[in-house]
Amino acid sequence: MAILGNIIKGIINLTGTLSTDVNHQEAQEKVLKNLLESAKETQFGKKYEFEKILNSKNIKKEFATKIPYYDYNSLNKKWWYKIHEGEENVTWKGNPSYFALSSGTTGKTSKRIPVTDDMISAIRSSGIKQVTALNNFDLPADFFEKDIMMLGSSTDLQEKDDHLEGEISGISASNIPFWFKGYYKPGEEIAKIEDWDERVQHIAENATNWDIGALSGIPAWIELMLQKVIEYHQLENIHEIWPNLKVYTSGGVAFGPYEKSFNALLGKPVIVIDTYLASEGYIATQTRPETDAMQLNTENGIYFEFVPMNPDYINEDGSIHQDAPSLTLAEVEKNKDYILIISTVSGAWRYLIGDTIEFTDIERAEIKITGRTKFFLNTVGSQLSVNKMDDAIKSLEEKFDTLIPEYTICAKRFEDGEFYHSWYLGTDLKKDEKEIADALDSSLKEANKNYKVARSKALKGVKVKVIATDKFYDWNDKNKKKGGQVKMERVMNEEKFAEWESFVNE
């Protein structure tokens, strides 16, 4: 009998029974007040008169009126640079213990995003919520005795001045609770290896020593790790070596485009649980099996606002106009795209995280990620979000019975002076590229009326190039590095796309 597993499961069940349903709107009001109270004596809090906001009749409205929108570049240029110059109490009390390095999916230069001790506590609380939610997934008691493979960036954080730096997955993994370390794989020694390929090689070599019950990480890198283990041990699928693997916790990107290729590596189905951990905080997690939507972490150090998704609100660099309206959780509607704005216990204020979301259940505060503001393709009025692109790729997989785990696109002006959507697909599909392009075009026309209108006017056509999926990973390796929080850019501007095409043709 799985005695320890039964004890752990019993605690989770009891926690779930004792906890009441969260009133997310009330939780958000409390979080905002706590944020303002905690930061009112900071430089930022004094500049924007947090004390007055706290004493106003409508705190949420006053907050939205007085404080401008920021993105990383503007907040770093006006405020966060002071932290690096040794100033304290800048946008949050004291100084951050960590900085999360993130080049995201667009820039080559790493962003340095403050991660305070308060944020570490908030991430840990949200992690406990995720574990507690496993009660809803009907897992056997012995699952809670299995190892958990967390494949993120290196936990060997770099010392700089009075803080440590690394990717958020490495920072989070280096702060796991002591009681969890016995379950955590690949373990501290291997997790500290900086070179991703070397780390995965060590994982493959040690795979037989572990009884993995759950995986956690970005889909593309989890797939490559599983492929390496399968190849190293000459297996048919990963369940031959990890027969008790039952759960995969995805994160960082939408899982949909990877679903088919991921399942091809399995010997039996696993439960997929979506999470949303960004460098700026733990945004949301899936809490029930009836949906793949994720519940916003409304109680743990993040206040959310939502700007209706409108191309007119977005500047060319992906930031948003200061006059764009923001809504609270009490004002949003289902099935509409919103630009996500957050204020956090790390001192990010009305911060454009760069993602767009839609609500599937407002009372439960459940959302789906629909795309990126910088990846919203509207060069010629096509208004394509990443989720529309993902859906089109999925239709290609079904039509041609193939796998397309990676792709990128650019609205490119060709020699004839006309704009075309130029797609690169990572797949081994052996089909005429014109046939693939026509199928892709038809799928997008059916799913998106704005795209259909654009195709009858300024958008001349669709071009497709089929390349090996490894090219996408090599590109990431060349520009940033493999593994961790690194994601492939789905949409490129023409300048970046020229670099991409040159790289592909080398």
Automatic annotation (TrEMBL):
Stretches of the chain forming a coiled coil according to its record: 430-457
Species the sequence originates in: Polaribacter aestuariivivens
Record has Coiled coil as a keyword: yes
Domain GH3 middle residues, every copy: 299-362
Record's keyword annotation contains DNA-binding: no
Matches recorded under InterPro entries: GH3, GH3_C, GH3_M
Name of the protein in its database record: GH3 auxin-responsive promoter family protein
Pfam short name (any one): GH3_C
Transmembrane feature ranges: none
Domain called GH3 C-terminal: residue spans: 390-495
